[in-house]
Design goal:
alpha/beta; TIM Barrel; eight-stranded parallel beta barrel; 14 helices; about 40% helix; about 15% strand; globular; binds D-mannose
């Protein structure tokens, strides 16, 4: 495994590369061209410049999160083939720059959904949180406005204002799409991109839906072991793989996270490891990474990754806002750095115990 850190790029991230370089054990970044829109071909010069910038800071690009998938592909509308061609061209441009991991998601309209971006915890830190009751009471068109005020001025990943301005239209476009159609469109997309992924050895890693159930009546499919294994089988190529995000699959307490990791052996190419604290099955908040601060057993999650021979990048995921930091919610420097250090500590202990035979 390689410990990495998500970085949104100069001008979009409050965290700088030199700071990431100083987090012990972090050697790579997971990054993106944040100013590209879904459907656009990523220009080779821009990818090259990003790579040079990261390498000049003594780090390397361990993967891209995300190359977003255009809604036309998810809906399977007549122009979807054109957008798949563009996606293939982007993958080709990434492959030529020696980039071999791409995280993406297949969630309709909204990417991750939270109802609060700054819930205060007893220690004074603030965290992202979700309450089903708040979603049920909300008009989806107002979702964006209801949380944007707490974003510390940042553009949230997957919540780009230009897309959110079209929410009503997007909902109408998804009207005839149920889970089965969405699954078929995803399979079609994967079949079309597998040749370029094979040519450049690019591992595609689908991010789960967050939360792992339908919101606002939209279809959601990457939510549990059964569905993700079905997808692995439908396109049975190692380049069709998974981003194992504990905080997303973990929103459904019925998902047994270590067991899922074991079932996906060989197909997990990237891991987001974070904890959640459940106040009830319908209300959770993003606690510190430490097991004792939340609901998950982080040792068992890391152990399952270790024992299945996971070799890809891990990144700490959403962190709390602590020590007065102002950053994109979930993506400050301090708490994620604590998370990286903690996860590295767990890994070292698991590795040493395994090598000593206990
Ligand atoms: C949220 C992230 C997601 C993730 C995308 C992957 O903070 O985990 O936005 O990057 O769903 O495409």
């Amino acid at each position: 495994m390689e410990m990495t850190f998500r970085w949104y790029g100069t001008g979009f991230d409050t965290v700088e590369l030199w700071q990431i370089r100083q987090i012990p054990g972090v050697t790579g970044v997971i990054t993106t061209l944040y100013d590209t829109t879904p459907g656009e071909v990523w220009k080779p010069e821009k990818i090259h410049a990003l790579k040079e910038q990261v390498e000049a800071a003594g780090l390397h690009i361990a993967g891209i999160e995300s190359v977003n998938v255009h809604d036309a592909i998810k809906i399977g509308s007549p122009d979807c083939e054109k957008y798949i061609d563009n996606y293939i061209e982007t993958l080709e441009n990434l492959g030529k720059e020696d980039i071999h991991l791409v995280c993406y998601n297949f969630m309709p309209v909204f990417d991750w959904t939270r109802t609060e971006l700054a819930r205060k915890r007893p220690d004074g830190s603030t965290v992202l949180a979700y309450t089903q009751a708040a979603v049920d009471a909300l008009d989806p068109e107002k979702m964006f406005e209801s949380i944007a005020g707490d974003a510390n001025g940042a553009i949230l990943p997957g919540w780009e204002p230009e897309r959110m301005a079209r929410v009503k239209e997007l909902f109408e476009m998804y009207a005839g799409i149920d889970n089965e159609k969405l699954f078929a469109n995803l399979t079609h997309f994967l079949e079309r991109i597998m040749p370029v992924c094979n040519k450049y050895d690019i591992k595609m890693a689908i991010h789960p839906d967050d939360p792992a159930w339908s919101v606002f009546g939209l279809p959601r499919i990457i939510i549990n072991k059964e569905n993700i294994l079905r997808l692995m089988k439908a396109v049975d190529d190692v380049h069709n793989g998974v981003t194992f995000c504990s905080g997303s699959y973990g929103t459904n307490l019925e998902n047994d996270l270590p067991e899922m990791i074991r079932a996906l052996k060989g197909r997990i190419h990237f891991a987001h490891v974070r904890n959640l604290k459940f106040n009830s099955p319908d209300d959770f908040e993003e606690s510190a990474h430490l097991s004792s601060d939340g609901t998950f057993d982080m040792y068992e999650i890391m152990k399952a990754l270790y024992e299945t021979g996971f070799e890809g990048p891990i990144r700490p995921d959403h962190g709390r806002m602590i020590w007065g930091e102002k950053a994109m919610p979930g993506y400050g420097l301090y708490d994620r750095a604590l998370g990286a250090t903690y996860l590295n500590g767990l890994w070292e202990a698991i590795d040493k115990a395994a090598k000593r035979g206990r």
